[in-house]
Specification:
InterPro entries: HATPase_C_sf, Sensor_HK_TwoCompSys, Sig_transdc_His_kin_sub3_dim/P. The chain is an alpha+beta fold. Helices cover 68% and strands 14% of the residues. It contains seven helices and five strands. A five-stranded mixed beta sheet has the order 1-2-3-5-4, with helices on one face. Helix 5 links the parallel strand 1 and strand 2.
Length: 254
């Protein structure tokens, strides 16, 4: 009987050790997977950050090249055409030259618009608020919506952050008008507890941001989320019966 009890005790002791080892292996596997996931997420974040920073540099470079070289060359060509017009008397030839000159003027205006979209000069010269207001005004004329921009008590973003936030808002506005058919857009900028809070609303077709981002083959919504993550910020979609409403938290400049 005593021998049986010893065997039974040995059996339960061995079973306990095996269970403990099994739990330890499972724990280590889960810990390894969790750590691997965090490392991959950090690597993906750093890679995306590098891509976005490189994109900003390229935008600035292309914008500068277009402004300093292409527009300058077009201006020189227009001057030459002006000199030709003063010397040519043939109405038919003069009509062709005037037509070419008009095309040059349209091309210059188009390139100026492209350089503005690549790197808004207002952002460097007048700051974030002026840039947002300017884009809202121009977009409202183009798409036919009304807008409201509130920024009482708002602390300006750092120069680095303001560029990304401006592109986020531009992406939201374009998405609201092109895909949502919005006729009313509201943006409220506030600052609390060293964080800038951006509240964006539109009355366009309602959608779930995450579901739409995963379903879409485009990059608009993906770019919004990537830029928010690049700012170490967070994006939240609020439930609303009548509006799409999003809140973005980003650390303020101070």
């Amino acid at each position: 009987m005593e021998k049986y009890s010893e065997l039974k005790l040995f059996f339960w002791f061995g079973t306990a050790i095996m269970v403990f080892l099994a739990v330890a292996v499972i724990f280590l596997a889960l810990y390894y997977q969790s750590r691997l996931y965090k490392l991959k997420k950090k690597e993906a974040f750093l890679r995306m950050r590098a891509i976005l920073n490189k994109e900003k540099e390229e935008r600035a470079r292309i914008s500068s090249d277009l402004h300093d070289t292409v527009i300058g060359n077009l201006v020189s060509i227009s001057i030459y055409f002006g000199m030709l017009k003063n010397q040519i008397k043939d109405p038919e030839v003069l009509g062709v030259i005037n037509g070419i000159d008009d095309e040059l003027k349209d091309t210059k205006q188009l390139i100026r618009q492209i350089t503005y979209n690549l790197m808004p000069p207002l952002l460097s010269n007048n700051g974030f608020i002026a840039s947002v207001e300017d884009f809202l005004r121009k977009s409202s004329v183009r798409y036919g919506f009304t807008y409201e921009l509130n920024h009482l008590g708002f602390i300006e973003f750092s120069k680095q952050s303001s560029y990304d936030v401006l592109l986020i808002l531009r992406e939201f506005i374009t998405n609201s008008c092109v895909h949502g058919g919005a006729t009313d857009i509201s943006i409220t900028l506030t600052t609390a507890k060293k964080h800038n809070i951006i509240t964006y609303k539109d009355n366009g077709a309602k959608y779930d941001f995450v579901a739409e981002m995963n379903r879409s083959t485009g990059y608009g919504l993906k770019n919004i989320l990537s830029r928010v993550e690049n700012l170490h910020g967070s994006l939240h979609q609020r439930e609303s019966a009548t509006h799409n409403e999003f809140v973005i938290f980003v650390k303020s400049a101070d």
